[in-house]
Amino acid sequence: MSLPPIHRVVTGHDEQGRAIVSSDGPLPTVAEIAAIPGTVFHEVWATTGCPAPVDNGPDPTLAALQLAPPAQGTRIRFVDIPPDTEDFLAQGAARMHSAFSQIGDADASTVRADSPHPLMHRTESVDYGVVIDGEMTLVLDQGEVLLRPGSVVVQRGTNHAWANRSTRPCRMLFVLIDGRYSPELARALEPR
Predict the structure, then answer these.
(1) Spans of all domains in the chain
(2) Parallel, antiparallel, or unpaired for β 136-140 and 144-147?
(3) Residue 90 burial class via C-beta count within 10 angstroms: exposed 0-12, middle 13-18, buried 19 and up
(4) Using an 8 Å Cβ cutoff, are 28 and 62 in contact?
């Protein structure tokens, strides 16, 4: 089953300050993650700074692919995630450095020999993940949750993975917000 393309409308202002359509059409950046065939990032938009600049600036999705949001910024993307395969689960950990390198954050991978899933990773952000189509299992260090269309995850900088244990692709919408660990949590996360 193929998921439909994403249609994006971006608004802006003309020289008199009137609202206009700046762009209307397909996303300019849609990237398959080579180390995880079938995983596709659909980059929608990103902001830098807080408050976010409101202007007619250039399209931020034309920059290099990045997993995390910009410093003090946000990122919105759709991600298509194929079903986990036995091959992927058996060899996934060996390919994760390459996969996370392609999305600009090799250090995000936290996979170890005893990890519950080869895609375990962590970013210092608050992420809202919404299942649009299909099923997904949120995998944490301790516990799992099955998600279906309409399920929303508020992921607060935790070590996690997305496992597709169904027989068809899943599409999720993610909004990522730059964050900072509390001092107590940062100390708890330090390597021992």
Answers:
(1) 30-189
(2) antiparallel
(3) exposed
(4) yes
Residue type, 11: T
**Euclidean distance between CA atoms 186 and 78, whole angstroms:** 29
Stated length of the chain: 192
Structure tokens belonging to residue 111: 């996979």
The structure tokens 């249609």 sit at 7
**Inter-residue contact 43 to 65 (CB < 8 Å):** yes
Instruction: Work out the widest C-alpha separation in the chain, in whole angstroms.
Output: 60
* Per-residue buried b or exposed e for 125-148, using 16+ beta carbons within 10 Å of the residue's own CB: bbbebbbebbbbbbbeeeeeeebe
Please report, for residues 78, 84, 102, 174, the alpha-carbon distance to residue 136 in angstroms, rounded to integers and kept in the order given.
Answer: 14, 10, 23, 13
For 53-88, the pLDDT digits (tens) are 999 999 999 999 999 999 999 999 999 999 998 887
CATH topology of domain 30-189: Jelly Rolls (2.60.120)
